[in-house]
Amino acid sequence: MSDEPDIADFDFPRILAAVADPVRMSILKQLASAQDALSCGAIELPIKASTATHHFTALRQAGVLHQYYVGTSRMNLLRIDDMERAYPGFLSSVIAGLAGTTHK
């Protein structure tokens, strides 16, 4: 996706805002526990698909996740290595904190 920022263009306040939302926390938690990339439809969310798109976009534009297509499915991967280079320990700490939550 062309609106994914390069590491040099990461904006920490934008990243904080992106990961602070409960729906986005659920997306992060599910992606972190997956073995491979997940399609948007494979991520269980208590909202409509059109609303989910907004949340995926916020995470992608903040640089937290990478999206790509496989056929007609939009796949999602956390940008763990990029986030680690930009903000060492940040995303792993967020994910570790989510491990004990019940967000779905």
SSE order and pairing:
Layout (H helix, E strand, L loop, with lengths): L11 H9 L1 H12 L4 E2 L9 H14 L2 E6 L2 E6 L1 H7 L3 H9 L6
Antiparallel strand pairs: 1-3, 2-3
Helix pairs in contact: 1-3
Runs in which pLDDT lies below 50 for 5 or more consecutive residues are none
| Class computed from helices, strands and strand pairing | alpha+beta
Side by side, the strands of the main sheet go 1-3-2
Total count of helical runs of at least 4 residues: 5
Please tell me how large the radius of gyration is: 13 Å
Oligomer class: single chain
Main β-sheet description: 3 strands, antiparallel
Query: What is the H/E string?
Result: HHEHEEHH
- Give the strand content: 5-15%
Mean pLDDT: 93
Helix content: 40-55%
Give the termini distance in whole angstroms: 26 Å
User: Any idea what the shape is?
Assistant: globular
Number of strands: 3
Can you characterise this structure?
The protein is α+β, with helices and mostly antiparallel strands and 104 residues long. The chain is built from 5 helices and 3 strands. The chain has a 3-stranded antiparallel β-sheet with strand order 1-3-2. A hairpin with a 2-residue loop joins strand 2 and strand 3 (73-78). The protein is globular, with a radius of gyration of 13 Å. The termini are far apart. The mean pLDDT is 93.
